[in-house]
């Protein structure tokens, strides 16, 4: 039976497409739409979990990730 894991996806526009990032594992992907970038990130993450050794997963996995917005002075 397969397990599931909740991870964070940050998706931002880059040029004509989108880049998706999972900060817990520092794995990224891209796509021409938000949905494609998300789906490609899911595929990249699943492939990582299928092929990575348990020690590599443990070493790379950040269990606490905080996403927030900041206000900074410019100019």
TrEMBL record:
Q: What is this protein called?
A: Type II toxin-antitoxin system HicB family antitoxin
Specify the domain of life of the species encoding this protein: Bacteria
Its organism's taxonomic lineage begins at: Bacteria, Bacillati, Cyanobacteriota, Cyanophyceae, Nostocales
What is the organism of origin for this protein? Brasilonema octagenarum UFV-OR1
Q: Which InterPro entries match?
A: TA_system_antitoxin (IPR051404), TTHA1013/TTHA0281-like (IPR035069)
């Amino acid at each position: 039976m397969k397990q599931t894991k909740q991870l964070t996806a940050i998706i931002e526009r880059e040029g004509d497409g989108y880049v998706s990032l999972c900060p817990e594992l520092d794995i990224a992907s891209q796509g021409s739409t938000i949905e494609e970038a998300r789906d490609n990130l899911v595929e990249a993450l699943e492939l990582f979990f299928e092929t990575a050794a348990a020690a590599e997963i443990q070493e790379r996995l950040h269990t606490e990730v905080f996403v927030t917005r900041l206000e900074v002075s410019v100019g």
